[in-house]
Amino acid sequence: MKKNLLYLFTVLCTLSFFTACSDDDDEKNPNVLDVNTAYSGDKLDLKYSDSPLLGKEITFDTKDGKTATITMKGILDINKLLSLLMSKSTAVISTAPGVIPGEVTTTLSNVVLTLSGEKYTFEGTDNNNGREVKYSGEVQKDKLTMSVNVTMPENDLTDTTWTLPEMDWNTGTAAIYFLWESDHEGITIPGLIDQPWPTKDASMLIGTMLSPTLQKVLQNVTFQKDGNIVASYSKAGEAPSWQTSPINLAQYYFKDKKMYVQLNIDMIMATAQSGNSKAEATIPGLSDLYPLLSAGIPLNCEIADGKAKIYMDKDLLVPLLSILGNEAIAGMIMKKIPEEQKEMVGGILAQLPALLQATTKMDLGLSLVKE
Fold first, then answer.
1. Per the confidence metrics, is the pTM higher than 0.85?
2. Which residues pair with 371 in a beta bridge?
3. What Å distances lie between residue 105 and 42, 96, 102, 332, CA to CA?
4. Which tens digits make up the pLDDT trace of 233-270?
5. How far apart are CA 152 and CA 116, in angstroms?
6. Maximum distance among all Cα pairs of the chain, rounded to whole angstroms
7. Cβ neighbours for 205, distance < 8 A, ≥ 6 positions apart
8. Which of 121, 260, 284, 332 is deepest in the core (most CB within 10 A)?
């Protein structure tokens, strides 16, 4: 019996010893600053091409205070999204556009750290996916500052500026490219066109009619080396007074023969200085479009002889326009329509579901000319 008790005591002591060793291994290195966490909001000062970039999160992790892993991704303020889309959907948006165009998450490994008082400083270059990222920054408890400068892979739009073409009624050239083909007999417009009007003819006329209005507010579009899209624009309803849009509102990249445009909701909301209005409607099918917020909006891009067409096609447009058939959305639209136009607009919206179901081709976008 004594031998058994001695044996049990020895085992317990041995286990206690290993447990103590394990606890010692888990203890934080006292020489490593307590800065391992995720930084966002007012705890993150992030610049992209030397301009503020909102709506992002950076996770900093170091084990030894000598090197670190930095993970960058986008985050989405759900309240701002609801304000923008007017939806009561409770779906959680797990992804938003990342810091680098086309990368929802970017990980920088083996980042060399320099200890400076109560903070680490760092800088380096990361080459991946054909792009180059130069970064620098510093981190201390409750604050991370970082600057990122990116050169994206070259494409046919890199570092070019494009203007809208002059209207040409003979060739049908217009700034707005709209082509809609459907097996449906056509669309009627209450109070204007009583007989079914083929969607192809209607779409081409709509494009040419709206193009002069677009030319009054959009002068040109520039596609920068860092993936930013910058526009020269003027406010509607005023004599043209051209100004340049801030960077980091919209970015682009190419993948699998498609051009993707990513919109930074936080930056757009901050620029517009809009308040967080309350959601008013639930929009069925809206969650199906959430991937457009992370990967971006897929577009077709055709370039030849100094001319370009950048447009959405049927695969994207039909789901988008189908949302207009929702009673809540149609109701919000109708509230904005002048009383004398309600019958016409209401009649068009009522026909939309049947027209979309019979659609065989639909393209909508911009025609551009290289400067």
1. no
2. none
3. 20, 9, 9, 36
4. 998 766 778 999 999 999 999 999 999 999 988 888 77
5. 32
6. 109
7. none
8. 260
Q: DSSP character for 130?
A: T
Query: Which residues, in sequence order, are bridge partners of residue 60?
Result: 37, 70
Q: Which of 308, 302, 314, 299 is nearest to 367 (CA)?
A: 308
Report the sign of the C-alpha dihedral through residues 144, 145, 151, 155, in that order. positive
CA angle 342, 345, 347 (to 5 degrees): 100
Question: 248: left (phi > 0), else alpha (psi -120 to 50), else beta?
Answer: left
Which DSSP string corresponds to 333-353? HHHHS-GGGHHHHHHHHHHHH
Name the token pair of 71: 């993970």
SS3 52: strand
The tokens 């919109």 sit on which residue?
Answer: 263
Write out pLDDT tens, residues 313-355: 999 999 888 887 777 777 777 887 788 778 878 888 888 899 9
CA distance 202 to 364: 13
d(CA 359, CA 187): 12
Give the strand order in the sheet containing 56-62: 37-39, 56-62, 67-74, 105-116, 119-128, 131-140, 143-151, 44-48, 51-52
Spatial separation of the C-alpha atoms in residues 10 and 322, rounded to whole Å: 74
Cα gap 70→38, rounded to integer Å: 10
Residue with tokens 């019996």: 1
Q: Any idea what the Cα angle at residue 248 is, between residues 159 and 319, rounded to 5°?
A: 95
Spell out the residues 6+ positions from residue 112 whose beta carbon is closer than 8 angstroms to its own.
Answer: 66, 67, 122, 124
Rg (CA), the chain: 28
Tokens of 75: 């985050």
Please report where in the chains the tokens 């192809």 appear, as a residue.
200
* Spatial distance between the Cα atoms of 50 and 136, rounded to a whole number of angstroms: 11
Q: How far apart are CA 98 and CA 73, in angstroms?
A: 5
